[in-house]
Every structure is written in structure tokens, then in C-alpha cells.
Write a structure and sequence with these properties.
Order of helices and strands: EHEEEEEEEEEEEEEHEHHHHHHHHH
Shape: globular
Mean pLDDT: 88
Number of strands: 15
Largest sheet: 8 strands, antiparallel
Strand content: 15-25%
Low-confidence stretches: 23-30
Strand order of the largest sheet: 2-3-4-5-14-8-11-15
Structural class: alpha+beta
Number of domains: 2
Number of helices: 11
Radius of gyration: 21 Å
Distance between the termini: 58 Å
Amino acid sequence: MTITISEQAHKELFQEAEATTSLMPATDQSNQWDRICQYPPTLGQGLIRGIRLREGIWLSIYDYQLHDELVVRGSDYFQGLGFSFFLQGEYTYDDVLHEAGQHLVCGSGNEAAAVRKEFIKQRFLQIDVGLQPGVLRSFISDDSGELPPQLQHLVHSPEESSNWHLGTTTPVMQSIARQILHCPYQGISRRIDLESKALQLLALLVEQEIELHTERHTISTLKPGTLERIYYAREILLRHLDCPPSLSGLAQQVKLNEYTLKKGFHQVFGTTVFGYLHDYRLEQARLLLQAEDMKTSEVAQAVGFANRGYFAALFRQKFGLNPKEYRKQRTNDRW
């Protein structure tokens, strides 16, 4: 069975659920910044948690399962600046699949009417980070208050069209998202810890956006269709770190011949297809060693290396230290 409702009706169901919201039992009853409510019971079962980290920054966690397939027919509306991380489940938005392992970057502005379809028999787990454009400007604007050219596409007025795009969630982003879900603190300590994690995600996404738009600006000799397929090839690689396709298999997936893929990939990213994958794995491993106390074998597995010894040797070759030595050095530097 499929339930089809309007965006307005969908919003009203959530407002009804929010009206019955109670504070988390473990938090101070005077704190209104951390709230939890049930997912609208007519649609499914689960929880929604909303956390106001500071003025202009908030965090939302969605964890639910639908009773029936759900189709929401939207209408034009103003969309704020935000980022979504899909950890489990999938849905389509205007027939574009959004699934686990991806993140969504949404610029502010007027969002045109669209159709969202969510599926049953799956747990849907998502983390959203929302922020007002002024907060973004406070971190990275110049003296005149302007954002760097590579980030100006993220902020538009209600009269201008918004934009969004999907990206591949890196192992480091996934690690931070897990830490958000399993935050061990309560009260104000929880709020501080979650804000630091949200800002870490924001920093990683900003870095990714700057890199992406710088690359697109500097590559002018490739046809737009070819360029999109090369970026799609990179996305496939990053989503299959543990078992990447062969070069011929990758070329088939992105509908390019091997020569065009190899030449274009080197032109865009300055290295070979698997040279990029190799460097990406090791860089993500370095960041994971900084971000949390994972065992070396767990870090190796997270970035696609089955053999711990082989991983340690490659890590030393690239960074001059083995993973254990690198983590010890970073710990000493912090103190």
C-alpha cells in the first residue's frame, strides 16, 4: 500500500507529533535545547530528536520505519542552508535516489515543487545539520562579509532558486556521525560535544565544496557530459573502498571508454584512477587516527585494506611513521 499526501499535510502531522514532545528524561528539565518526539504514528514508528546547539545552528536525528510506502507531493517553499547524512535506508527525490553512504548539501533559497518517495521494510537513519547563512559567513567570510566564490552557491535569497547535490560520505564523516549518535555525555557537556562534532562535519563539507568547485572551474577542455562521468567514477570508487571495480568495469559503469576515463581522470585530479584511490584511503586513515581511538585494524578495514601489515607499511611509506607512531605523535602534540 502507498500513502500519498501533500507537503502541507505531511508538515501538519509532524506538528501534531511535536505538540506531544517531552524533554529527554536524562536532561535538565529547564533546558529546552534538546527535545525528542515520536515519528507521526499514522505514518510509521520511531523517534525524531532536535537539538539547538547555539543560535543559528541545530542538529536533527531521524530514526524511524514506515508502515507503508510514502509519497509526499511538495510545493514551492524557502529552504534553509543544511547538510544531511544518510546512514541507513533510501528514498527518491524527483526520481533521484538518496541512499546510505551519501550526504546531501542543500543551499538556501526557493525550492521548487518535488515528489519524495520513501520505502517500507527498512530502518531510516539520518542526521541533519542546519545553520543560518550568517553563521556560515561568521566562520569563513572576508572583511566585507562575502563568502569565497567557491561557496557562494550555498546562499540565496527567498526569491532565488536553491540548489542541492549529493556527495559520497567519507569514512571520517561516517566516524563523526557515529559519534553523534552515541554521544556519552548529558546536559551542557552533551551540547558542547555535539556542537564540536557538527562543526567538524561542516569543516569537512566546506573543504569538499571548495575542492569540487575549484576543480570544476579549472577544467575547461572536457565536455560537460564527460566531466560529469569522471566525477561519477570518483564517487563510485569512494563508495566501494573495500572492493573497487576494475578499470574496465568502472569505465562501463560511467559509460566512457577506458582511454577517455584514464586521460580525463588524470586531467581533473592530477593522478591515475587507482593512484587517487590509494592516496584517498591513506588520507582518510590519517584523519581517522586523529578523530577517534580506533584500533589500527579497524582503521585499515574502514578505508578498504584487508591486511593490517600491508596497510601499516603503506602508511609509513606515505607519512614517514606507522599508524601507532603517528597516533602517539599526534597525542603528544595536543598536550
